[in-house]
Design brief:
The longest helix has 21 residues. The chain is built from 4 helices and 4 strands; from the N terminus they run αβββαααβ. It has a single domain, classed as Sufe protein. Chain: A (Alpha-Beta Complex), CATH 3.90.1010. A 4-stranded mixed beta sheet has the order 3-2-1-4, with helices on one face. By secondary structure, the protein is of the alpha+beta class.
Length: about 170
């Protein structure tokens, strides 16, 4: 397949996730939740998920407002995380962060459709858009260590413009 056709396919998948995001909405039985925003471009995400006693993500939902990259990435992240243990989720978050920074990762297939966001590395201003949902999940998982499962934790975090693009 020619490179331009492959790029077009990637764009179509990203646009589909942005226009018809998976796992979008509110999760009534959430055990954990977090809200984060990216003040650089105005993206805001509310992320809710169910983490069972074995620390496995059983369900996940997101809402908020964001650009197409932010929304598509949240949709792709949600798809990738259901059924993952906390350790697996943290590993995928790290892999995704490296991918969108232009680093080569070993197991690209583990990211599912999110692997198609590798091109974001060419646009440094969009890295924060792509990583917002992933950072939110990582922080929520870290935050849940200080809360009791079954009680929703709420944390509002602003990414700072001076932060390293993770």
């Amino acid at each position: 397949m020619a490179l331009s056709k492959l790029d077009n396919l990637y764009r179509q998948v990203i646009l589909d996730h942005s226009s018809h995001p998976h796992h979008h909405g509110v999760l009534d039985q959430a055990t954990n939740q977090i809200e984060m925003n990216n003040p650089t471009c105005g993206d805001v995400i509310q992320l809710q998920f169910v983490l069972d006693a074995q620390q496995v993500i059983q369900d996940i939902r997101f809402s908020g407002s964001g650009c197409s990259i932010s929304t598509a990435s949240a949709s792709m992240m949600s798809d990738a995380m259901i059924g993952k243990s906390e350790a697996e989720a943290l590993h995928l978050i790290q892999e995704f962060s490296e991918l969108v920074q232009g680093q080569e990762i070993k197991h690209l297939d583990e990211l599912g459709d999110a692997a198609m966001l590798s091109g974001v590395a060419k646009f440094p201003a969009r890295i924060k858009c792509a990583t917002l949902a992933w950072k939110a999940l990582g922080r929520a998982l870290a935050e849940q260590k200080t809360t009791t499962i079954g009680h929703a934790a709420h944390c509002e975090v602003n990414t700072k413009e001076g932060d390293k693009n993770e």
